[in-house]
Amino acid sequence: MQGAWTPDQVRDAERSVFTSTPEPVVMRRAAFAVAVHGARLLAETAGAVAGRHVVLLVGAGGNGGDALWAGVEFRRRGAGVTALLLSPDKAHPAGSAALRRAGGVLVDAAGPGADTAGVGAAAAGALERADLVVDGIVGLSARGSLRPLAAELVSRVAAPVVAVDLPSGVDPITGAVDGPAVDADLTVTFGGRKPGHVLGTGSVRSGAVVVAGIGVAEHLPEPDLFVLDAADVGAGWPVPRPQDDKYSQGVVGVAAGSATYPGAAVLATGSAVQATSGMVRYAGSAADLVRSHWPEVVATGSITDAGRVQAWAVGPGIGTGASGREVLRHALESGRPVCADADSITLLAEDPTLWDARDPDAAVVLTPHAGEFQRLAGEVGADRVAAAREVARRFDVVLLLKGNTTVVAAPDGRVLVNPSVHAWPATAGSGDVLTGLIGALLAAGIDPWLACGYAAHAHALAAELAAFGPEAGDDPVGAPIGASALLRSVPAAIRALRAS
Ligand SMILES: NC(=O)C1=CN([C@@H]2O[C@H](COP(=O)(O)OP(=O)(O)OC[C@H]3O[C@@H](n4cnc5c(N)ncnc54)[C@H](OP(=O)(O)O)[C@@H]3O)[C@@H](O)[C@H]2O)[C@@H](O)CC1
Ligand SMILES: [K+]
Question: Which HAMAP family match (predicted)?
């Protein structure tokens, strides 16, 4: 599991470093890492470093300073370097002087000879001839979307890009992109990942992220934002041990679907069946249909005679009327962990007295999309991590907020994010599959916060496999999928995770 740290946490750590190591030394380390990884990218894409042309986009602060010092390193390796200064008066003085001494060319990005978009002739020409662009426009101190000149330069970049610390135009805290932004092939960051690398579009804009050690990591606090990688999920996924039987691996109860919406029942029970080797019980009016799809499921018509379970997955398709409310109440009273999804969330939003039924010692997982979140607690807003964290605390639940980046907040403030490169899971019924996965993992005794993280990861991978994998003829383009295809790919996803 990797951590991610906010700009404030990183700045505090930097200040600690500066008590023993002078600031310019730390900056030179950062720049050296940018140059080493940038040179590797340049050699790969342009065949060599010496004789190639590197363009630096240089902003007003430390990020631009890193880029200028990286330019010095590129000169040492024989590359031509042109620095386009966005704020010539504020460009890092020592970095500028060093690059000049090293034979680099420094130009004012805005002139002379500015075109109608405000870009100077030298800057425009340099960008056209670039073999590699180093993005040092803005880093940790970025605020808002890129200013017009920076945005214009970014829009003209055609060469491969190495971003310093963060791709400029990506919000360091939320990963949001509101306007033009750098699309990096590679981002070299320092000490640890930032939220901007793992959240929202930021995870895509960052390209491959390299974390360079510049002495900062040792001073960072325990993270409260985490990213699971495939190996974590694979290692934690419950599989039968020699001494296990169907009960010892956890029995999950699924209460989903109705006569009107039987599909939710089939999808949620199906994913629970495939997630673990534990037993699956189904309770609801779609029992016959569930049995015909999944003969291994013990299905009954009513939750009151469903039998013993270790966890409940409740909600998709149960409706928001009186019968749905009683189903949810029964699950909450059971003293078992409950994954409450879809209609369950609406029910809890409409009738907060349902919370009273809850056994305070049993975990509750809520899995809203933005609309359900709004019913429960108002607009999500731009900072999805903060929103999820706040609601997890308020209701003492594990909150899985669906979206392009799945955010899983625990009541103690820890947050897991699952960056997703593709939006293939965004299809009707996909949430029902996720609910079944979470329910099965809860029944297997997996910590609810991790269970959500594992399930989100497997779910995204299953969607990807369904769109691109063997079932799709290993088609590199991909095609839209339905939730049934996603469901069929769950075993392949688990297998791939366990193999990684
Ligand atoms: N401290 C150190 O020694 C080390 C620091 N390190 C490096 O320094 C970076 C942090 O440096 P930083 O704090 O100087 O700010 P940074 O992110 O470069 O922003 C600079 C200025 O940009 C402007 N600006 C803001 N928003 C903007 C926008 N949307 N569009 C355009 N411009 C915008 C705004 O200036 P303004 O124009 O408002 O005066 C702001 O002050 C960090 O990411 C890492 O790379 C590493 O070397 C390790 C050692
Ligand atoms: K940058």
Answer: NADHX_dehydratase (MF_01965), NADHX_epimerase (MF_01966)
Q: Which residues surround ligand 2, an ion (CB under 5 A)?
A: 63, 135, 139, 163-164, 168
What does R_g of the chain's alpha carbons equal in angstroms? 26
Q: Whole-angstrom Cα distance, residue 469 to residue 465?
A: 4
Residues 274 and 163 grouped into a single domain: no
Contact 372, 364 (CB under 8 A): no
Mean pLDDT of 181-192: 97
End-to-end Cα separation, the chain, in angstroms: 14
Query: Probe ligand 1: pick from 63, 68, 165, 174, max atoms within 8 Å of CB?
Result: 63
Burial per residue of 448-474, b for 16 or more beta-carbon CB atoms within 10 angstroms, e otherwise: bbbbbbbbbbbbbbbbbbbbbbeebee
Task: Kindly state the tokens that stand for 315.
Answer: 């909600």
259 and 204 in a single domain? The answer is no
> Mean pLDDT for the chain?
95
Pairing mode, strands 311-314 and 251-255: parallel
CATH number for the domain including 242? 3.40.1190.20
> What pLDDT is stored for residue 421 in this prediction?
62
What is the best residue among 17, 138, 164, 166 to mutate for testing ligand 1's pocket, by most ligand atoms within 8 Å of CB? 138
d(CA 103, CA 73): 11
**Residue 14 structural domain:** 2-223
Residue 346 Cα to ligand 2 midpoint, Å, equals 42
- 119 lies in the same domain as 262: no
Is there a contact between 265 and 289 (Cβ–Cβ < 8 Å)?
A: yes
One domain for residues 101 and 198: yes
- State the average pLDDT over residues 343-372: 96
pLDDT tens-place string over residues 415-453: 999 876 677 777 888 999 999 999 999 999 999 999 999
Which residue has better confidence, 474 or 31? Answer: 31
Domain total of the chain? 2
Q: Are residues 216 and 236 in the same domain?
A: no
Q: Is the CB of 385 under 6 A from ligand 1?
A: no
Longest dimension (CA), the chain: 82
